[in-house]
Design a protein that fits this description.
The protein is of the alpha+beta class. It contains 18 helices and 8 strands. The chain has a 4-stranded mixed β-sheet with strand order 6-5-7-8. It has a two-stranded antiparallel ribbon with strand order 1-2. Helix 5 runs parallel beside helix 7.
């Protein structure tokens, strides 16, 4: 039975005892999952879960035709078995693992999925596809689904934030997958503990793409990106293995060389899902503040992109770590290039980044020429508040003058969240090339029905709505 709203997930606080060698972080997380799954999510977390769902559906629909997504979808159907779990917007179905894998791939392909400052990554693209796939398997109620999503975010952010050294999302999101799925399957905590350990030790290592700067060579842009889809497979397989008696190193998170958790591990009271950020551009979050800052300068001073002599970006170490190629070779290179995205936005406006398309790779001499005029420098002031904030300041040199932006934070941060109407507008903009207005309205209406307590319309969208052809430019 689900408890009343007043007993919500936020009420659970776990304190690590001195003898954590016997209890351990993994066991505490497993105990949290077991405790929280029977409780209705508190209203702030519940509202945040719906916002995350809407945002992720837009990212998934926009990414449905990307080559890497198509490849994973095909392999999921071949290798992960038949089943009745919907592969969203593709008119297909697969097993729990196959559908969750395919849906996660589409959700993360264009870098439009949500993120979290503390974890320095993207929990939604792992948690939400897992939650819906397993909820379909278990026949979960709406409230059970929402609770599992809240639990998944709580676990993922807590572990991602505790990492001593930065790791791409795939290095820690498999833990979230286990927590989300175990909540819906009502797996006993002793089994959950082993599943978490198996997932953590088996997760994508991402050693190449997670490496700190300078990276020689910098990784080529590829569909693997942060390894989020494969972490979904890893997490779900880990849970199945643990249910079958497989074991993992349950002291994995007690290793102080890799993780530094607070003495009081207050899982459930943080409600990390409330502090998710949402993106308005289909590119790495480190690109967003420079784009917003530059566009503000261009609008304020009526600057023509053809007349720009130089663009100087003061930024953080995180932004210096990405590849930042002035002449990208593929769409993923574009997603991780501040110079090229600035050039795109300067010439074609912010709509060129929502979503990014292969048209961005025209290798127009104007675009690459302006991208080569962009220089990045580390600001100690901005880096001192990173990753809690990702700030930037941009100077545009034009006609012998220098125009300097304000210190800029990207739009959509938890401190300045997008409204529901703004998220709907993002959905419409992001999906305009794959969905008709009627189809867009069908999904948006289904999401509003879900907020009102009825999942049927959203389930119907997953099962019957196919968005697999480019409709409009």
């Amino acid at each position: 039975m689900l408890s009343s709203a007043g007993e919500g997930i936020g009420a659970t606080t776990l304190t690590r005892p001195d003898s954590h060698e016997q209890t351990g972080i993994v066991r505490l997380i497993a105990a949290y999952v077991e405790t929280a799954r029977g409780q209705r999510a508190l209203e702030p977390a519940r509202d945040a879960a719906f916002r995350c769902m809407l945002d992720l559906l837009g990212a998934t629909a926009a990414g449905i035709n990307e080559p890497g997504v198509v490849a994973i979808r095909g392999m999921a159907l071949k290798a992960m078995g038949a089943g009745s779990v919907p592969v969203w917007f593709a008119g297909l179905s697969s097993s729990v693992i196959g559908a969750a894998w395919a849906n996660s791939a589409a959700a993360s392909a264009l870098d439009l999925d949500d993120g979290h400052r503390l974890a320095r990554g993207h929990p939604g693209a792992a948690v939400i596809p897992t939650a819906f796939a397993v909820a379909h398997e278990t026949g979960a109620t709406l409230e059970e689904l929402i609770s599992a999503i809240v639990i998944g975010y709580e676990v993922s952010v807590a572990i991602g934030a505790a990492r001593v050294v930065y790791g791409n999302t795939g290095t820690w999101s498999s833990y979230a997958v286990v927590a989300t799925a175990a909540a819906l399957r009502r797996t006993p905590s002793a089994i959950v503990a082993h599943a978490l350990a198996i997932a953590g030790e088996s997760a994508p290592n991402q050693l190449f793409s997670s490496a700190s700067a300078p990276r020689a060579p910098a990784p080529e842009g590829s569909a693997i990106k942060e390894g989020i889809p494969w972490s979904v497979v890893t997490g779900l397989v880990a849970l199945g293995l643990a249910e079958g008696g497989h074991t993992g190193p349950r002291n994995i998170l007690d290793n102080s060389l890799h993780y530094r958790f607070p003495d009081d591990l207050s899982l459930g009271s943080s409600l990390h899902i409330r502090n998710t950020y949402f993106k308005l551009y289909a590119c790495c979050r480190h690109v967003h503040a420079p784009v917003d800052a530059m566009l503000n300068v261009i609008r304020q001073h009526h600057i023509n992109a053809n007349e720009i002599d130089a663009i100087e970006v003061e930024t953080t170490s995180g932004a210096m770590r990405i590849s930042n190629r002035a002449q990208p070779e593929n769409l993923i290179d574009v997603q991780y290039s501040i110079p090229y995205c600035l050039a795109l936005a300067a010439f074609h406006g912010p709509q060129a980044l929502l979503p990014l398309t292969t048209k961005s790779l025209a290798h127009d001499d104007e675009l690459t020429g302006l991208a080569r005029k962009v220089t990045l420098s580390l600001s100690p002031e901005f880096d001192a508040v990173f990753p809690a904030q990702t700030l930037a300041r941009v100077t545009v040199a034009c006609g012998g003058q220098r125009f300097v932006s304000d210190i800029t934070a990207p739009k959509g941060e938890a401190t300045n969240p997008l409204s529901w109407a703004e998220l709907e507008a993002k959905f419409s903009a992001a999906t305009r090339m794959v969905a008709t207005h009627t189809q867009q309205n069908q999904v948006l209406g289904a999401m509003n029905d879900a907020r009102a307590g009825n999942l049927a319309a959203l389930t119907a969208c997953f099962e019957g709505l196919t968005l697999n052809s480019i409709l409009r430019g």
